[in-house]
Write a structure and sequence with these properties.
With 156 residues, this protein is mainly alpha-helical. The chain has one domain (41-154): Up-down Bundle (Four Helix Bundle (Hemerythrin (Met), subunit A)), CATH 1.20.120. It is 86% helix and 0% strand. α1 runs antiparallel to α3 (80-99) and α4 (105-114) packs antiparallel against α5 (124-154). The protein is rod-shaped.
């Protein structure tokens, strides 16, 4: 090739190479941004689901403890209202267990708290355990939800 031909071909090849590299970088950045958006969106949905499930669980347990505190435990356990609440609480427990990460200590603490027996409140001590668990639940849930919210804000 002559110098004149090289002066025409080299700038053209450089332009094509630059455009290809730019397109590749734009693709990688776009893919990363899309992935971060999808992860953040999914994490926000998870946060909302966990918050709603824990809130409903807390509400059901509170109503159950009020029923137990007001009446004889055997009368309460035999009532349809109590049986329905027990079924709902068990559903919510299962849902919370499926939503948590078994590799994180505070998630395991959450499962421990919701595992306090509700129907076995035969004594005042059992009732105290249930009330204590009910009080601990929002504290640990807030820690988990706050940490996850911070991840969402960072786009992780």
């Amino acid at each position: 090739m002559t110098t004149e031909q090289l002066n025409i071909v080299v700038p053209g090849l450089t332009t094509i190479a630059g455009a290809a590299i730019g397109a590749w970088i734009a693709y990688l950045v776009g893919r990363q941004q899309f992935k971060a958006t999808v992860i953040s969106s999914n994490r926000q949905t998870w946060i909302n689901t966990l918050r709603d499930t824990i809130s409903e669980y807390q509400s059901c347990v509170s109503a159950m403890s009020i029923l137990i505190a007001k009446k004889n435990i055997h009368e309460v356990i035999d009532s349809n209202e109590f049986r329905e609440r027990v079924a709902r609480v068990e559903f919510l427990r299962s849902k919370i267990r499926l939503l948590i990460n078994p590799n994180e200590a505070d998630h395991l603490k959450l499962v421990e708290i919701i595992s306090v027996p509700i129907t076995g409140c035969q004594t005042d001590e059992d009732l105290k355990k249930m009330i204590t668990a009910r009080e601990e639940l929002p504290i640990i849930a807030q820690k988990i939800l706050k940490r996850e919210w911070e991840r969402v804000k960072k786009g992780n």
